[in-house]
Amino acid sequence: MITYVSKQAYVFLATLYGGILIGFIYDLYRILRCIFKPKKIATIIEDLIFWIVIGIASAWVLLFSNDGKLRFYTFLGFVIGAILYNRILSSFVIAGIVRVLRVIKRIFLKVLGVVLYPLKIIKKFLLSIWKPIKKKIHPIYFRVKRFCLLPKIFYREIVKYTKFIKNKK
């Protein structure tokens, strides 16, 4: 009988840890929702993925702790674990994850700046060359553009004139 009680205590503690894991996954989900701000369809898909992950995590905990048997104390362990995590650890975990994400963002932006620096210099050089050329070409460009539009304008005028003549008869 003692081993049975110790087995139940082990299962209860395992489901308690499972509840903590579920709380952690929920915090990750909340952080991702705040970062990406999804629309309605994306929210539905994210919710579905969240519940699938939660279902897999809880099934994994139940399978490895007591061969997948459902008891009242297993549900109680999940609920108490999630509540304890939410009340005690959630704020610290969220603050830590946000700090890590900010550091990753800073590093990413610095690396991106280093990678894009040669492109910025090339762009600046090309713009410095293009501005004087553009001043010289600009009036010619509009003349050529108007000249290229002449056949289209001519065709429109012919169509309009033929319709006018047909309506006169």
Helix content: over 70%
Low-confidence stretches: none
Radius of gyration from the alpha-carbon trace, in angstroms: 34 Å
- Structural class call reads mainly alpha
Secondary structure tally, helices? 3
* Overall tally of domains: 1
What overall form do the CA principal axes indicate? elongated
* Pattern of helices and strands: HHH
N-C termini distance: 112 Å
In total, the number of strands is: 0
Largest sheet: none
Word description of this protein:
- With 169 residues, the chain is mainly α.
- The chain has one domain.
- Helix content is 94%, strand content 0%.
- It has three helices and no strands.
- Helix 1 packs parallel to helix 3.
Summarize the structure.
The protein has 169 residues and is mostly helical. Helix content is 94%, strand content 0%.
